[in-house]
Amino acid sequence: MKTGVIAFILTAFFALREVHEPTIIGKWQNEDGTRAVEFYPSGSLIEGKIVNDKNPDFEGKVIFTKLKFDGKAYQGSCYLPKRNRTVHCSLKLTSPNTLAITGKTGMISDTKIWKRK
């Protein structure tokens, strides 16, 4: 009996924890407000497409692909339309409404901060 109660409590705890953990799903805007991306589930992974950009040719383009949460951050690929290049990226929620996006190529990396829209 005690084992059943403990199992129920642990199951409920972990189920509630998953529901309340922040996620990157939704719309995000870059620092200068020139681009907005919407992140959405794609099977077991997450993708992100441009929904608003100062260059209308970029709108609708999927630029974040194969994003998977590793327990600390989302790891995947990011396409840089201005450079026509795909790089490894890491996306980490620093708060529920702040996202640090780090693009890496070789030994060079750059981090941008985006805000939930």
The helix-strand sequence is HEEEEEEEE
Structural class per helix/strand content? alpha+beta
Low-pLDDT windows of residues: 12-19
Number of helices: 1
Which fold name is given in CATH as the topology?
A: Lipocalin
Order of the strands making up the biggest sheet: 1-2-3-4-5-6-7-8
Number of strands: 8
Number of domains: 1
What percentage of amino acids are in beta strands? over 45%
Helical content stands at: 10-25%
Cα gyration radius (Å): 17 Å
Short account of what is shown:
By secondary structure, the protein is of the alpha+beta class. The protein has one helix spanning 2-20; strands at residues 26-29, 35-42, 45-53, 62-69, 74-80, 85-95, 98-105, 108-116.
Please specify the SSE layout and strand pairing.
Elements: H1 2-20, E1 26-29, E2 35-42, E3 45-53, E4 62-69, E5 74-80, E6 85-95, E7 98-105, E8 108-116
Antiparallel strand pairs: 1-2, 1-8, 2-3, 3-4, 4-5, 5-6, 6-7, 7-8
